[in-house]
Amino acid sequence: MRKVGIAGVPNQEFIDHYKDAGYEFIDLDMPITGIDYFDVIEKIAPKIYCATLKTVFVNALVIKPDIILADVGEGKCDGMRFIAEALRELLPDSEIITTRNMNSKPQGNPISVSDLPLKEKMNRIVNSVIMEVDKNLKPCKPTAGFWGVPPRDFAILDIFPNTTHIYGWARCMENKAPDNMEIEMFVDEGIPIVFFAQSFCQKTMLAKYLANKYNGLFVDVDAQLDDSTKAKVIAFLTLRGAIK
Ligand code: SF4
Predict the structure, then answer these.
(1) Atom of ligand 1 nearest to the CA of 51
(2) Tens digits of residue pLDDT in 206-236
């Protein structure tokens, strides 16, 4: 079966087109078992660089999808533009298609406000880019918040209670509105919120700014969650009464 690799949230018309044509979809943003290492790009990408972009790069070079559909607009980040250009040269047999998903019209976020475990919520949001997921869920009142992009290492999500709402760009992603700053900036006030960004991402600034504004906790994580960040998040959520 022909494969299409997706980076970010490409425009829905592209997704629908390749779905109808029977392509197998691969989410290049997420680590894939067996190839979750960075050796392949050791000589061509800096060590100190966004782990999500490095993951896209490695997955694309190892899997060599027939088509790579990369969002390089506001929904993703400038970094993907450069990787797409490098992939054009490195994978001459793959067709590299770049898109700018400027959609800002919200389509709802029942997953973000549901009472599912946080990791399950994030999994469904990520999967919703390429498949239909169950969105018929029970909403809950938030007792904690996770703001940010889907992390490369989902381990951080296990720390939070099920009554955690998702905010930030992951909520934009669920809304299929990756270019909606209003959603990205929104949080419910008065609850403990962890403002997360991948290390070396431009969103670290916004995460830190909002953490200061809403008395939350700013954390940035590289490829994997380390013990000190884990301890910081546990202490913050415990002190603020979100977990025991
Ligand atoms: S985490 Fe930041 S730098 Fe990395 S791909 Fe996402 S927007 Fe770009």
Answers:
(1) 4
(2) 999 999 999 999 999 999 999 999 999 999 9
